[in-house]
Write a structure and sequence with these properties.
The structure is a homodimer. By secondary structure, chain A is an alpha/beta fold. The first copy, chain A, folds into 2 domains: 203 residues, Isopropylmalate Dehydrogenase (3-Layer(aba) Sandwich); 141 residues, 3-Layer(aba) Sandwich (Isopropylmalate Dehydrogenase). Chain A is 40% helix and 22% strand. Chain A is built from 12 helices and 14 strands. In chain A, the strands form 3 sheets. Chain A has a 10-stranded mixed sheet, sandwiched between helices. Chain A has a two-stranded antiparallel sheet with strand order 6-7. In chain A, a hairpin with a 5-residue loop joins β6 and β7. The longest helix of chain A is centred in the first third of the chain and has 19 residues. Chain A is globular and about 60 Å long. Chain A starts with a strand and ends with a helix. β7 of chain A pairs antiparallel with β7 of chain B, so a sheet runs across the interface. The structure holds 3-isopropylmalic acid (2 copies). One 3-isopropylmalic acid (IPM) sits at the interface of chains A and B. Chains A, B: GO terms for molecular function: 3-isopropylmalate dehydrogenase activity. Chains A, B: Its EC number is 1.1.1.85. Chains A, B: It holds the Pfam family Iso_dh.
């Protein structure tokens, strides 16, 4: 049996379609590089609701726990939009993050040369862009208690959420950001609203302490979240690694993704803490969602899912060479002029999901 | 005595410099249009800390309460950056918003034709952009209790903030947004994270109820905050009025401002509830901050402060004609080729704060 236990969770919408293309790469690796994975597949999101009545059944959590890495598609769609809160497909992701302790969500925003024109920003502002958002993903306002909608004495409703961070939660995700910065351009921009939020004040203090004590060689900058949104949109190349809470990281990483103009190209990883043997849980997924409007049409861009698989190979299986092979194949296919609808440019050849997938395998 | 009681709070950084240019306009109005204001001036922010030891002294709050409108400059700067939380200049603004019940912060993001090229976005994506962000400004995570940094049993720190909204707080700011939309392009995009936040779920429900019951003629769309950041950056012209909580409104309005590329041109208004006689407290300020790096150099752009004064005339004093005069004067000066450093373009004439101010008065 392989020591590479891989759980695949295609999910909803275009998830299964783009995951299918990764399967081709896996078959190719099996044939040509004699790498074999111990693969299982599970249900999550709307698909799991339909099959099992829960967006994240216990078996899925157990399978994810047992796996060395999880390749995730995407969840959600109009079919499940009117379900009560506890039955939202999104809870599938949230529960996996929480139960597996996947506290560091890494979202690169990279502009590949052939796609610099796809951005809504002027090409020279984004050409060569390569930034990384490190988002805390098991704490903050996503999970803090108390939370709920309550009826007050006057019969009116009141909605409550709690943003809460301990210094340990901040420190461990900060370390991930500093570590990454060392392998990149050595700069961390830590984002909060320390001017109005108490958790933001603590965030700023702890990140500063970790930086001074453990990473004095890494440049650290503190920035308010509103200003960061502004700077991302006006001068994105000033950033290397951006570190933020669950909520700010969510909004800023989507913004960063949007400004590349090629959301269909962006992978992400969510990592847990290494255990004594150095093994860490990890989940890899495209930044784009389930895109129900184009699901089933065969036109979705499989690149983000492919590149998520490349991240998986690199970080969970230490297969740097294979990861690079896939990344290079994707770049070559783009350079060759193939484009899915989302990144179509004049003069290029528009293709569907499977033609794109096949082309990538051919380039491998 | 005039019934137009105007309180001016220049604040810090470039605040006093740009407010000075508005004074010229006020003198011109006095001379040429026989409009007189009952003007007083007060301290706020760092200036107030230096003079009185508090970022918002009681006299300033009392003067603001007594005034029919407040013209505000900006607060903050490195001089006060290391002060403890309770002494931050920013508390000056926060206290005024809270004590005067200024719950609706209106931030237009407008691209004037001569400045379409100033945006980091491609000119055709922003040319003619005219959207309005309505941000709740006395509630949510900015003020919710409990909040603070506490020491846990294990001696470690924990930071806590509470996001809390009652249905009445949501309803009143939603009404402001719907009302504005009726005078514009009749569309409201309400922003939250109803998929992960309980206050967001309530926000979505209440805005929907108010829309259906009181504004069935206004198109209402609900959007997650992360998606809204994305959409603002990729297709900003899809929006008319964007409605959000204190926190989301803060981040998204700064983003919207940035994508105009001309932050130095953007005014804002923060409004309270009308009393029985229809009188409402209101504060007008530029969207840009105190810009300490250029303070005292005479190069700041006075336009945002001028346009804030125009908003004040329109909304607090019902002087539509005078408001239009100022707005037209600003546009003419730009069309004539004058530019302050922040909006400088090749082929234009670069001028300082007072030359810009004088030119605007001359165009009146
Ligand atoms: C699906 C949703 C709960 C999620 C989030 O808000 O975290 C998504 O936006 C993301 O960023 O992964
Ligand atoms: C000064 C600061 C407290 C303030 C805020 O966060 O509200 C500012 O960013 C703003 O938007 O007016």
């Amino acid at each position: 049996a392989s020591n590479k236990k891989l759980l695949i969770l295609p999910g909803d919408g275009i998830g299964p379609e783009v995951v299918r293309e990764v399967r081709r790469v896996i078959e190719w690796m099996d044939r040509r590089r004699s790498v074999s994975f111990d693969i299982s597949e599970g249900v999550v999101g709307g698909a799991a609701l339909d099959a099992e009545g829960s967006p994240c059944p216990d078996e899925t959590v157990a399978a994810a726990r047992a796996a060395d890495a999880v390749l995730f598609g995407s969840v959600g769609g109009p079919k499940w939009d009117s379900l009560p809160f506890e039955k939202r497909p999104e809870l599938g992701v949230l529960r996996l993050r929480k139960d597996l302790g996947l506290f560091a969500n890494l979202r690169p925003a990279v502009v590949l040369d052939p796609l610099a024109d796809a951005s809504s920003l002027k090409a020279d502002l984004v050409r060569g862009l390569d930034l990384m958002i490190v988002r805390e993903s098991t704490g903050g306002i996503y999970f803090g208690e108390p939370r709920g909608i309550e009826i007050m004495a006057d019969g009116k409703r009141r909605g409550i959420d709690t943003e809460v961070y301990t210094e340990d939660e901040i420190a461990r995700v900060a370390r991930v950001a500093f570590d990454l910065a060392r392998k990149r351009r050595n700069k961390v921009t830590s984002v909060e609203k320390a001017n109005v939020m108490q958790s933001g004040r603590l965030w700023r203090a702890v990140v500063g302490e970790i930086g001074r004590a453990e990473f004095p060689d890494v440049e650290l900058e503190h920035m308010y979240a509103d200003n960061c949104a502004m700077q991302l949109c006006s001068r994105p190349k000033q950033f290397d690694v951006i570190l933020g809470s669950n909520l700010f990281g969510d909004v800023l990483s989507d913004l960063a993704a949007a400004l590349t103009g090629s959301l269909g190209m962006l992978p992400s990883a969510t990592l847990g803490a290494p255990d004594a043997s150095g093994r860490r849980h990890a989940l890899y997924e495209p930044v784009h969602g389930s895109a129900p409007d184009i699901a089933g049409k065969g036109i979705a861009n499989p690149c983000a899912q492919m590149l998520s698989f490349a991240m998986l190979l690199r970080w969970s299986f230490e297969m740097e060479e294979d990861a690079k092979l896939i990344e290079t194949a994707v770049q070559r296919v783009l350079a060759g002029g193939l484009r899915t609808a989302d990144i179509m440019q004049t003069g290029m050849a528009r293709v569907g999901t499977s033609v794109m997938g096949e082309a990538i395998v051919r380039e491998l």
